[in-house]
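Treating backbone geometry as a discrete language has practical consequences that deserve illustration. Part of our work consisted of pairing the sequence of a single chain with a tokenised description of its backbone. What the numbers capture is local backbone geometry rather than side-chain detail. For completeness, the protein is quoted in full, as a sequence line and a line of structure tokens:
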Amino acid sequence: MGRFELDAAGITDPGLRAAYQLCRRLNYEHGKTYFLATMLLPPAKRPYVHALYGFARHVDDIVDDLDAAVTEDRVQQLRLWTSDLLTDLDWQSSGDLVVRALIDAVATWGIPVSYFADFLESMRMDLTVHSYANHEELSRYMWGSAAVIGLQMLPILGRAGDDVPWEDLELRAIDLGTAFQLTNFIRDVGEDLSRGRVYLPQESMDLFGVDRERLARRRVDEPIRNLLAWEIEQARGLYRSAEPGLALVHPTSRDCLQVAFTLYREILDAVEEADYDVFSGRVAVALRRRAQVALPGLRRAWLQRHDGRVAPRWSA
């Protein structure tokens, strides 16, 4: 299937094909919901989304490896790697397969390099910042870790028409990327705590009498339930704000976005159904439900796959 996608996108260079196939594997192995949603795109668009996901995962793995024992030397290692990456993007050449695919995707779709600089700045923060005082502080982190991910995707997803204002679509993409990130923060409280990080804002925790020590006990009590319920409502507000943007993207991209939107939003429902237990294991939407949501779009994608080739770039 990966080869069919590469053929549809007109990617013929053997080395570049290998780079995209690696990104596809990273998406498949680590981003089940994102991978499923990506399969609803026309085949010619899929490799580029795999490249964006593969790069984000690649950097995340680097940061988590450095985070095992954070020292100034390790922070400097990430700075140097970031500098090298931005140079590679500028020169459009890299010996790193994941970065090579990214360079091609950026060039094909005209994605601003500044988005990747902002993303890497947030990844650097993960090495040195372990809590956030309020939503304003957290929003600065999420600009690079989530909002720009949505913006990176826009050129590939495309607009419904030239009459769709770029600014409207951009704002919806920022809200949706941030909603996805907040959903992850809520679901992954226990996992993040193991890495020494708390992404729930301190002002929210103070509101319900929760501190890091209480979280570290890994027992769900009423204050923690109330805290998570509050944060879930913040995330749902972002989903509501982002939802009108689904109709603004190109028709060939709507199934992809709708599936990601629906399944990620339902993670919040799953947390509630688990009585807010985000410590015992990773809460997830049931496989049967994921199939139910995705199958109609998968059928359409299969029937329409001959329409997979799309023009690179789009007018803003």
